[in-house]
Specification:
heterotrimer; A alpha/beta (about 300); B alpha+beta (about 350); C mainly alpha (about 230); B: about 350 residues; OB fold (Dihydrolipoamide Acetyltransferase, E2P); 6-stranded mixed β-sheet; 20 strands; C: about 230 residues; mainly alpha; 11 helices; about 0% strand
Chain lengths: ~300, ~350, ~230
């Protein structure tokens, strides 16, 4: 009967699907089988494709498989707190400190840094080109609230970039929740990733704070330019840390340590320093290796391998 | 074989069957006739165990069929039912007929043979692979009949089986009903609102009115001696006159609105009665030609209307009471009867059927 | 406008040259949603039958609830399954988070209400006289259910098609429980068409997004075509 054959074919397909679809369990420690390392990171880092570049090198060397999920910094930290990953890679010093203090993370190492930039329309209606970051922010706010055609688009999503933005507002002497948020139509919160925020700023011909990596990736597609790219306040430091095995004993500790050490190894530090030159004419990151003083972190975090 | 004992059924507080009682013998054809909505379908559904009565009992071979689950299931398997709407499944004719056999776990080879046989009986040989939903109404109903019969039921129930069919199909189905009953001895209970169908096919008729059997009897009894006014009206007696018994000694005299009518029924004076006279029993003659005779009622009157009815005419006469007769056109012409003509209406005493009122 | 045309052309190129990433993502979408649909059908169709034919207190409320869940937002289902499968959650020990299996589970849960509800609708659409006929032919409860389903099979099949459509086009649950991972092995990755479109769009890769969008529509089209053909046999 026709119905019988259809049923049989479906049953076989189902069996096939189940075999395909149900694989993907995590760290199996059987020797010979590939081990998996789960990493949570921010979209800022992920979207630069640095990790895609480094992954094959690591995977071959250690016969492993990297499972990388990305989201806003807040989301990545959440994954870390819930023990759903083995390694956390973010760029928000303050929140990282809290994470370590609460015992969720351990063995933090800084492996790269770059600078945030304030981008805006070429016409620069607020005239902030070349200013200090705090001064630029103050000017934008002033002009924006005065009703001039000045708009600032914020990440508004509790990401590392957003935290950095808030830090700059604070350094400029403002109370974020009272003076900035909701203070006028000049300040808009996108609530989305870096790329989409840049696109939105482009649409509105507005100002925004962006990491250099994402901006370079979008540069050709938008009419915005980098107006302020110097100042300590714009420092963007990336770290990687293990999820604490004391809190979550079944994380893949060995491979996590391997990955972190891999990142700060000489060979990979050089890879990082040269990443992006071919495509954008300038590197997207600086290797942290020798610049611990410049970026204000202990030497150990940059140099010492995890044991 | 089937005993209905005071069967009651209510739906949402509304009582549809208010105590139905009857006795159907094995091998009989029993017709349930009654006006629309009188509960005929409900009664059949109760017998087929598709519903449960709210009161009373239905016994088959002495056993209450609603008493327990297993009994019900066993009994249901020896009954077949055909519904008013042809309910065929969306598959082939052969598959339709085979459904009941499959439920009983009959082997494939046997199924094939039985289906073929059943189709032959209902006159649809060779229809096995046709899609059942593409057949005409009459053909679908015959498939439904074959489907019910192929499981060899002892009782066949049919709920207004020919209600929506063309006359040719009706005839075919009626033929099959008679044949099935005659050749296989199947007890058949069917409902119909066509009283003539009941008359044609049934051994026994139950007239269902107001939730009860107003009368249970042979076709002749029901049609010529209706048990009540309502039954009389339902079986098509046009002349029903109310009156009071005046005198009684062998022949009875009934005073009906001033007019005196003599009948042959034994009654007591002062009884309230209804007189039922069939139109066919009334003769109309021009006033001058009428003759009186013993054993005959003759009433003078004036023709109030002549309404055509097929090849006949319904002649209504006011004799103090309203009587109507059926006469052929020819007779009407020959007698020169017109509206306003003075005529005499005559009928035998025996043709007056008396029914008690109140 | 130019951007759209450019993107469209690039999309065709990716499809025609069988770009490996696009192929892998598409295949995964199909496998995940297809499996979810099968699982959901195996649960929903019999369950729908049992609910329809059953008589129990609260039956109406249950059906009402099921119909309310039709519009269950996908992110809520995603969040729920995420919380259940997360390592700190009750089923964390299964280690299913960020795997295709988690996505299958989420999609199955997502389309269950709609498939149960539509099965019940399909069965209600069968003339009650069919039910009477089956019962009078002596059907057991199971035979009654099975045969009524046969009568309703077109409508039930339509429900299955709808379920698949909803599963393959949802994004919220897939991204929450899957993580939109592109790993080096096929079976460890969880990126599907919808989540990939979301990502590519947010990164500004319009042509890639359009390509994936075309593939998604094409799949939906093919599935519908197959279902309608089967229905007309």
């Amino acid at each position: 009967m026709q119905q019988r054959t259809i049923f049989a074919v479906t049953a076989i397909l189902v069996a096939f699907m189940l075999i395909c679809g149900c694989t993907g369990t995590t760290s199996d420690q059987t020797p010979g089988e590939k081990q998996q390392l789960r990493i949570a990171t921010t979209t800022s880092l992920y979207d630069t494709k640095l990790l895609d570049h480094l992954t094959p090198i690591f995977e071959e060397k250690y016969n492993a498989e990297l499972i990388i999920v990305s989201g806003g910094t807040g989301k990545a930290i959440e994954y870390g707190q819930r023990g759903d990953v083995d390694v956390l890679m973010v760029h928000d010093r303050a929140r990282e400190d809290a994470f370590l203090a609460d015992g969720y993370g351990t063995n933090r190492r800084v492996f790269a840094y770059n600078y945030f930039i304030i981008i805006g329309p070429e016409s620069d209606p607020a005239g902030i080109k070349g200013m200090d970051p705090e001064q630029a922010f103050t000017t934008i706010r002033e002009k924006g609230m005065a009703g001039e055609n000045v708009v600032f688009v914020s990440r508004g999503d509790a990401s590392g970039t957003h935290s950095k933005e808030q830090a700059i507002w604070k350094a400029a002497g403002f109370n974020y929740s009272t003076d900035i948020q909701g203070s006028g139509s000049w300040y808009q919160e996108a609530g989305t990733g870096m790329g989409a925020t840049i696109a939105m700023a482009n649409e509105k011909q507005a100002y925004a704070l962006s990491d250099i990596g994402t901006f370079l990736a979008y540069k050709g597609d938008v009419d915005l330019v980098a107006l302020v790219d110097e100042g300590d306040a714009l420092l963007n430091v990336y770290c990687a840390m293990q999820i604490n095995p004391e809190k979550y004993p079944d994380t893949n500790t060995a491979l996590a340590k391997d990955w972190i050490n891999f990142l700060i190894s000489d060979e990979i530090q050089q890879e990082i320093a040269s990443f992006g030159v071919e495509e954008y004419g300038q590197p997207l990151f600086y290797a942290a290796q020798n610049d611990w003083e410049k970026i204000g972190v202990p030497q150990a975090e940059v140099k010492d391998p995890v044991l | 074989m089937i005993e209905l004992e005071g069967v009651r059924k209510s739906f949402d507080g509304k009582e549809v069957l208010a105590g139905v009682s009857a006795r159907i013998e094995r091998g009989e054809i029993f017709a349930v006739i009654g006006p629309s909505g009188s509960g005929k379908s409900t009664l059949l559904r109760l017998i087929d165990l598709l519903d449960t009565p709210t009161g009373g009992a239905i016994r088959i071979n002495g056993v209450d069929i609603h008493a327990n689950r297993e009994e019900s299931h066993r009994v249901q398997r020896m009954m077949g039912m055909v519904f008013q709407k042809p309910a065929v499944f969306n598959t082939t004719v052969a598959e339709n007929i085979a459904v009941g056999l499959r439920f009983r776990g009959i082997k494939e080879a046997a199924i094939k043979a039985k289906v073929e046989e059943a189709l032959a009986v209902v006159g649809l040989a060779g229809y096995e692979e046709r899609r059942a939903r593409t057949l005409s109404g009459g053909e679908m109903q015959r498939v439904a009949l074959a489907r019910a019969m192929v499981i060899e039921p002892e009782i066949l129930l049919m709920d207004e089986p020919t209600a929506n069919l063309d006359p040719v199909s009706v005839e075919k189905i009626e033929e099959l009903v008679v044949r099935i009953n005659r050749d296989l001895g199947t007890t058949i209970v069917f409902s119909t609102h066509d009283m003539y169908q009941g008359q044609r096919l049934a051994h026994l008729i139950g007239v269902l009115m107001n939730g009860r059997f107003a009368q249970v009897g042979t076709p002749r009894e029901v049609f010529t001696h209706p048990a009540s006014r309502e039954v009389a009206r339902f079986v098509g007696i046009e002349n029903i006159i109310d009156g009071v018994v005046v005198a009684s000694n062998g022949t009875c005299a009934v005073d009906a609105g001033g007019v005196r009518i003599r009948t042959r029924s034994p009654l007591t004076p002062e009884e309230l009665v209804s007189l039922c006279i069939r139109s066919e029993d009334l003769r109309v003659t021009p006033a001058g030609e009428a003759t009186t005779a013993p054993g005959k009622n003759t009433l003078p009157g004036i023709v109030t209307s002549i309404v055509p009815r097929g090849p006949f005419s319904r002649v209504t006469v006011d004799c103090g009471i309203t009587l109507s007769s059926i006469l052929s056109w020819k007779v009407v012409d020959n007698l020169g009867i017109r509206e306003g003509s003075h005529v005499a209406v005559s009928f035998a005493e025996e043709s007056v059927h008396v029914v008690r009122r109140g | 406008m130019y951007e759209i045309i450019e993107g469209f052309l690039e999309a065709l190129r990716l499809i025609i040259t069988l770009d490996p990433d696009v192929m892998a993502i598409s295949l995964r979408s199909i496998i995940v949603s297809f499996t979810a649909t099968i699982f959901a059908s195996l649960i929903a169709v019999p369950l729908g039958g049992v609910i329809y034919f059953g008589s129990f207190p609260g039956k109406k409320s249950l059906i009402n609830l099921i119909q309310t869940l039709y519009s269950l937002p996908t992110v809520i289902v995603g969040l729920l399954i995420f919380l259940l499968l997360s390592r700190v959650g009750p089923f964390g020990f299964l280690r299913l988070l960020f795997t295709p299996t988690a996505m299958i589970i989420a999609q199955t849960v997502l389309i269950l209400p709609i498939m149960i509800g539509l099965t019940i609708s399909a069965l209600s659409g069968v003339d009650p006289i069919i039910r009477d006929t089956l019962r009078s032919l002596g059907a057991t409860r199971f035979q009654l259910l099975a045969n009524t389903m046969k009568e309703a099979k077109f409508a039930i099949l339509a429900a299955v098609a709808l379920g698949f459509g909803r599963a393959i086009s949802e994004v919220g649950a897939a991204i929450l429980v899957g993580g939109n991972i592109m790993a080096s092995s096929f079976s460890s990755s969880t990126r599907v068409l919808t989540t990939a479109i979301s990502l590519e769009t947010s990164m500004g890769n319009i042509s890639q997004s359009i390509a994936l969008g075309i593939v998604l529509l094409a799949i939906a089209l093919v599935v519908n075509f197959v279902i309608t053909t089967v229905q007309h046999r």
